[in-house]
C-alpha cells in the first residue's frame, strides 16, 4: 500500500472551469510552503508546460517551477490530462533520487452547482523518513502536515476560481 494524502474541497464552478483554473492559473493560486520546497533556491513560479500536440494540450507536458533567475526545475511529467475530469502528474523534489518519486492525481467531480476537487498525493513510501523532504517526521505526522498544505492549496484554488473571470 502506498503512503498517501487525500484531500477534497468544493469549488463554485463547473468541473471544466475548475480544471482550467487549476492548470492555467496554477502560478496565481499556488502557495509555496517553506517546509516542502522543490529546490534549495526557494519558491519559483509554477506552471504546466504544454505539450506540442494540438489534440492533447497538456498530456505529456510538464509541471515546472521557474526561478527568478530563469532556471527551470521539472517537478514532474503530466501522465493524464482529461479536462473537467482528471489530471495526473509526477512530483519530485530536487533532492529525490531516481527511485524516489511520488504522483499526484486530481479529480474534478460535479456535485450540484459545484465541483468537488480531490487531490490524492501518493508514493511517499519511496521517500524514507530520514530524507530531507520528510524532515525526519514520523509517517503519520509527515502525511498530516503534507495534507494540511494541500488543504491550503485547494482553498487558494477556490479563491482564485471565485475571483477569476471565466474566459469569454
From TrEMBL:
Q: Name one Pfam family in it.
A: AHSA1
InterPro entries noted in UniProt:
ASHA1/2-like_C (IPR013538), START-like_dom_sf (IPR023393)
Annotated ranges, domain Activator of Hsp90 ATPase homologue 1/2-like C-terminal: 13-133
Q: Would you say which domain of life the source belongs to? A: Bacteria
Q: Enumerate the Gene3D superfamilies for this protein.
A: 3.30.530.20
Indicate the family of this protein.
Answer: Belongs to the AHA1 family.
Listed name of the protein: Activator of Hsp90 ATPase homolog 1-like protein
Q: Which organism is it from?
A: Paraburkholderia aspalathi
Amino acid at each position: 500500500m502506498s503512503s498517501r494524502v487525500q484531500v477534497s474541497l468544493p469549488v463554485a464552478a463547473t468541473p471544466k472551469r475548475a480544471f482550467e483554473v487549476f492548470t492555467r492559473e496554477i502560478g496565481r493560486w499556488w502557495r509555496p510552503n517553506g517546509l516542502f520546497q522543490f529546490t534549495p533556491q526557494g519558491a519559483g513560479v509554477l506552471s504546466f508546460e504544454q505539450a506540442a500536440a494540438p489534440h492533447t494540450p497538456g498530456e505529456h507536458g510538464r509541471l515546472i517551477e521557474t526561478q527568478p533567475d530563469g532556471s527551470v526545475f521539472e517537478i514532474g511529467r503530466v501522465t493524464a490530462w482529461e479536462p473537467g475530469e482528471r489530471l495526473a502528474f509526477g512530483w519530485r523534489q530536487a533532492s529525490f533520487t531516481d527511485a524516489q518519486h511520488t504522483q499526484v492525481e486530481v479529480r474534478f467531480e460535479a456535485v450540484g452547482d459545484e465541483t468537488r476537487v480531490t487531490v490524492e498525493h501518493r508514493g511517499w513510501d519511496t521517500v524514507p523518513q530520514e530524507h530531507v523532504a520528510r524532515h525526519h517526521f514520523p509517517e503519520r505526522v509527515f502525511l498530516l502536515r503534507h495534507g494540511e498544505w494541500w488543504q491550503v492549496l485547494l482553498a487558494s484554488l477556490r479563491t482564485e476560481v471565485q475571483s477569476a473571470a471565466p474566459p469569454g
